[in-house]
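Sequence, C-alpha cells reproduced for reference:
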Amino acid sequence: MKMLASGYSAEIDQVGEAEWSEIIQLFDDANIYQTWSYASIRCGENNLSHVILKKDGFIVGAAQLRIVRLPVLKRGIAHIRWGPLWRLCGKKTNLENLRQMTRALLEEYVFHRSLLVRVLSNEIEGDDNVIRSIFEMEGFRWRSDSYRSFLLDLKPSLEILRKGLRQKWRNQLNRAEKNGLKLIEGTEDKLYEEFSVLYNEMLTRKGFSPGVDINEFRKIQKDLSYDLKMRIMICEFEEEPVSALVGSLIGNRGIYLLGATSDKGLKLKGSYLLQWRMIQWLKEHGARWYDLGGIDPDGNPGVYHFKAGLGGADVKHLGCFESCESLVSSFLVKAGNQMMMTSRKLKPLLNRIRQASI
C-alpha cells in the first residue's frame, strides 16, 4: 500500500449533493455520469460514496462511486463510471493528481472496505499510454473497453466545421434547412415529454428493445441542478414534433445521449438540423469536444454512418481498471458479471416470446 504524497489529502463522504454539484464543475472531464442525480436515481443515494482529493488544501480531484455489496458478507464492488475527475478547468494537466487519486481509491475501498474497485475511464485511447501506466503502476489491472464513439473537435469555426461535414451529410442538412422546420429547445419537463412520445413511437416502429430507460433519465433531469441539466431540442413541422435530441454539457465535452424521430421527421431530415444546432449550442457554451455517443458499425450501421457524417474522429475509450485484495469480492463480481451477460443475451428472446403470446 502506497501512502499519499506530501501535501495531498483525501476526504471520504464529507460532501452533500449541492456541494458535489459545485465541485464537479471545477473539472474539464466532468460529465453527467458523475452527477449525484444520475447515480442516486439509478442505484439509490445510500449506495453512493464520494472522494475529494486535495493538494495543499485545494481540490484537485474527485470521484463518485456506486457501492454494491452482499448484505451478509459485506463484500462487493465500488464502481466509478467516467471518472475519476482530475483535469482542472483552466489548469495545466497534472498527472500527479491522477496518481494520488488512484492511491486514495485503493486505500479506502480496496484495503479498508475490502471491495473490488472498478474504474470505467472516459479517457480516450491513444498512442500515449501514460495514463494506463499510472493505473497499472499503482496496482490496477487493465482490460479493454468496447466503447467507441465519434469525437468532434469543436475548436474550429462553425464555417470550417460545416465544410468538414461529409458531402452527403451536408446536402441533407441543406435540405432540412429548406423544409420549414422549427426548433424549440430548453430543459423543461414538457420538452422531455414530447421527446418521450417520439421515442416510444420510434421503438414501436423499429420493434427493438431500448438500451436505456428514458423514464429514468426523465427523473434525473428533474433532479439535476439548473447548471447541470440536459439540453432538450425538439424539431417541429407545422407545430407537430417530428424529431428530438437530448444532450449534456458538463465540463468541456458535450455528449449526445438520446434521439428520436418519426417517419415524417425522417423524410424532413429533422435529425440533421438538430445535430447541427447542438454543435452550435455547444460552441456557444464553450465546449471543446462533442461526443456523439456509442457506435456499433456492425450491429447498427445506419446510426454509425449518420454519426460518421459529422466528420469526427472514430475513437475508443482507454478501458476499464480493476483492483481487489478480497477473493470473495472478486469471485462475487465475476459471478455477477456472468449472470448479467447471460441476462442480456436472453432478453431479446424473452421479448420475442412475450410479443408472440400477446
